[in-house]
Amino acid sequence: MKRYFINPELKRSTAVLLIFNMLFMAAVLLNLKIYHDNLKQDYLRTFGAVTERIYSYNPEIAREIMPAITAGADEKEAQKGESILKQYGLSEKLENGLFPYINKSAQKENLNVILIFIGMAAVFFLMNYIQYSYFYDRIRRLNTGAKKIIDGDYNISISEDREGDFSKLSNSFNSMRKIIRNNLDELKKEKQFLVELLSDISHQLKTPLSSMIVYNDILLNKQVSKEQSRTFLINSKNQLYRMNWLIKSILKLARLDARAIEFHMERQSLNETTRYSIEALEDKIKSAGVQVDLHENEKILFPHDRQWLCESLINIVKNCVEHTQNGGRVDVYVMENPIYKRIIVSDNGEGIDEKDLPNIFKRFYKARTSKSSDSIGIGLALSKSIIEAHGGIINVQSKLGVGTTFTITFLKY
């Protein structure tokens, strides 16, 4: 019961009900007092008339019956008196109309009781109307708000500045409205993301597919030498590999953006993950003639999915190697302090123009100074999504002709 009395409406209606009950009791007691006064007056009139007749015949007997009137008669006298009255047809079975004084008092009493109940019924009806009209007005507001939400209007807000269940209901309604609006916004974003993704896939696959169609038409419709055929087939093979890698990368990025990937976080060495990433690029590093050094002072443990974080680091180190000239250098640092864990990948390569820096993590963006024709511009976008999924932050600093530095930071909580 206590939990219902947090509602101010219940407190108020209970207080009003108690007040009106007290007024009703006071009215009933007042009516009873009036009735008793009238009954006493009728009692005096009846016995006054009887006493007057007795007194006119015998004053002495009148004096003797006075104690019976004021103090009451004993049981035997009362029974004998009732027997005598019955001989004259007077008993409690007679109608009230044959007792004029009693009948008049009873009629007044009945009228007063009826008036009291009519008054109380009118008051309770008015209270009931006011209280429930107040409740239903608030319910209609919620109903109107729900209809507006169904019609697509999410700007409505139900405000309740009092405690109680209606306030909780309005807060829940507002929360539901925000959740529905946010879900619809997310659906719109996902729809737009899907449109953009399909557009990106179509755009990126168009060039290699066109090249393969041309190679295939040449091989089918023209006389070419065995050496030329081999060249066309090798080019087609390279385009297929490129398309395969592109499709896989785009799908990975799409799954990351849609939060459809479940990362298997394990507390393990960040140093080893970084080392594995560099080792995976060993052939590419040798062919590029670039020196890659890992700098570490202590073993750093960090909860992460090694496979995915490795892929992110591979893309970053690969980007530095590709944009560093033969004989250049790439340094990878793994460090920790009381605030964060950090991985820094720095090269002394060609650098990135200041105008391109804000865009290098966007999908399919290629810097205007990039000399790599094979670059698609998806690796860094994929790396950024993976790092952010691990709760990290990636920043880049670069200067043309000096080099580029990628800084990956994992804050400690």
UniProtKB/TrEMBL annotation:
Residues 138-185 form the HAMP domain. It holds the Pfam family HisKA. Residues 200-413 form the Histidine kinase domain. It is a multi-pass membrane protein. It catalyses: ATP + protein L-histidine = ADP + protein N-phospho-L-histidine. The keyword Flavoprotein does not apply. Gene3D superfamilies: 1.10.287.130, 6.10.340.10, Histidine kinase-like ATPase, C-terminal domain (3.30.565.10). Residues 177-204 form a coiled coil. It is found in: Cell membrane. The chain crosses the membrane at residues 15-35, 111-130. Keywords: ATP-binding, Cell membrane, Coiled coil, Kinase, Membrane, Nucleotide-binding, Phosphoprotein, Transferase, Transmembrane, Transmembrane helix, Two-component regulatory system. The keyword Coiled coil applies. One of its GO terms (molecular function) is ATP binding. InterPro entries: HAMP_dom, HATPase_C_sf, HATPase_dom, His_kinase_dom, HisK_dim/P_dom, HisK_dim/P_sf, HssS/ArlS-like, Sig_transdc_His_kin-like_C. This is histidine kinase. It comes from Clostridium moutaii.
